[in-house]
């Protein structure tokens, strides 16, 4: 169902303050995150082995110990029980919780969910988020979508929905037709949807010339298994060069919370030229962040959730979808993911 030996985006760095115990469910596993005194992130299974109280209801003690809030067992940052305050104070060898490898990179806390050794070189490259000055990047945002993560990936990898679902915001009637090209390299799929001499979408017009005049558009959305997405789009003068234009680079990090829910983290930056030298960058940033959140939370989210409910309610009627040419990208992603999960399950059985 899930690929386990991979890094998953757990939360933005700022969501984990010093001294707090933050719960998250990832791949159907309850987890508690906290910062050690050094600032490094630790993650444990959020389930006390005594009577199964969630550990995030306890306390973080000096020495990077988590004290269960129910009867006070204490666990170290790797999950070993370090104190039993009761009776003989004996600690049973089975009294432990699982500790997970974590890494903090690109303003994000990542967790490794598998049993193979965690490989830091496999953290996906979202280094454009490292410059998090408020003039550079949108708000780092988050949604919890009540649908399987593959449907959210399908939505992003097939942007032919934009002219309909996002008309006037990040889509428009001129963006229906485009020469779609799908490219695969290893476990990465790119879908290119360039357009020539079309009216810009609302967002691209605001990012670029603000005159509504026709533009050429570049649009490449990249998926890397299991669920890391990067959208690179922008506008430039018809027949001109991309370097003359302005665009948007958007990170879309999907993490399966459960089979039926997805943690969706997103942020974006401007790329290329800022033509309006008098533009108030703070106002722009606010607008840019709000417009993107509106599109994802008010337009994509209800549609994806409604679609997922239909699939759950009518499984027999929804097993064989009609495929359009625009589905080539998502189909490819799903095949790669199926194969990776199958291989992982075979090697662990
Ligand atoms: S449930 Fe945690 S100590 Fe009892
Ligand atoms: Fe969308």
TrEMBL record:
<dbReference type="InterPro" id="IPR044043">
    <property type="entry name" value="VanA_C_cat"/>
</dbReference>
<keyword id="KW-0001">2Fe-2S</keyword>
<dbReference type="Pfam" id="PF19112">
    <property type="entry name" value="VanA_C"/>
</dbReference>
<keyword id="KW-0408">Iron</keyword>
<protein>
    <submittedName>
        <fullName>Phenylpropionate dioxygenase-like ring-hydroxylating dioxygenase large terminal subunit</fullName>
    </submittedName>
</protein>
<keyword id="KW-0479">Metal-binding</keyword>
<dbReference type="Pfam" id="PF00355">
    <property type="entry name" value="Rieske"/>
</dbReference>
<keyword id="KW-0411">Iron-sulfur</keyword>
<keyword id="KW-0560">Oxidoreductase</keyword>
<dbReference type="InterPro" id="IPR036922">
    <property type="entry name" value="Rieske_2Fe-2S_sf"/>
</dbReference>
<dbReference type="InterPro" id="IPR050584">
    <property type="entry name" value="Cholesterol_7-desaturase"/>
</dbReference>
<dbReference type="InterPro" id="IPR017941">
    <property type="entry name" value="Rieske_2Fe-2S"/>
</dbReference>
<feature type="domain" description="Rieske">
    <location>
        <begin position="7"/>
        <end position="111"/>
    </location>
</feature>
């Amino acid at each position: 169902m899930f690929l386990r030996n991979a890094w998953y985006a757990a939360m933005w760095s700022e969501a984990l303050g010093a001294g707090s115990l933050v719960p998250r469910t990832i791949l159907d596993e309850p987890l508690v995150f906290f910062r050690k005194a050094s600032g490094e992130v630790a993650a444990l299974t959020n389930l006390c082995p005594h009577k199964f109280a969630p550990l995030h209801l306890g306390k973080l003690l000096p020495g990077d110990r988590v004290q269960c809030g129910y009867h006070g067992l204490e666990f170290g940052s790797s999950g070993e029980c370090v104190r039993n305050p009761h009776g003989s104070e004996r600690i049973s060898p089975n009294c432990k919780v699982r500790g997970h490898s974590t890494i903090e990179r690109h303003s994000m806390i990542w967790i490794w969910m598998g049993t193979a050794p965690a490989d830091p070189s496999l953290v996906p490259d979202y280094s454009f988020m490292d410059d998090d000055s408020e003039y550079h990047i949108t708000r780092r945002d988050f949604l919890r979508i009540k649908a399987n993560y593959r449907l959210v990936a399908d939505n992003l990898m097939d942007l032919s929905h934009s002219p309909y679902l996002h008309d006037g915001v990040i889509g428009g009637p001129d963006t229906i037709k485009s020469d779609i090209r799908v490219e695969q390299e290893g476990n990465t799929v790119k879908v290119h949807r360039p357009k020539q001499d079309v009216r810009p979408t609302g967002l691209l017009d605001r990012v670029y010339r603000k005159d509504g005049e026709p533009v050429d558009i570049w649009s490449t959305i990249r998926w890397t298994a299991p669920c890391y997405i990067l959208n690179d789009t922008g506008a430039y003068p018809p027949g001109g060069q991309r370097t003359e234009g302005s665009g948007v680079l958007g990170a879309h990090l999907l993490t399966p919370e459960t089979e039926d829910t997805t943690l969706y983290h997103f942020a974006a930056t401007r790329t290329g030229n800022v033509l309006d030298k008098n533009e108030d960058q703070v106002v722009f940033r606010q607008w840019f962040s709000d417009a993107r959140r509106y599109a994802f939370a008010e337009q994509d989210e209800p549609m994806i959730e409604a679609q997922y409910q239909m699939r759950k309610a009518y499984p027999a009627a929804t097993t064989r979808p009609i495929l359009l040419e625009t589905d080539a990208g998502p189909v490819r992603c799903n095949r790669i993911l199926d194969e990776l999960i199958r291989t992982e399950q075979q090697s662990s059985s």
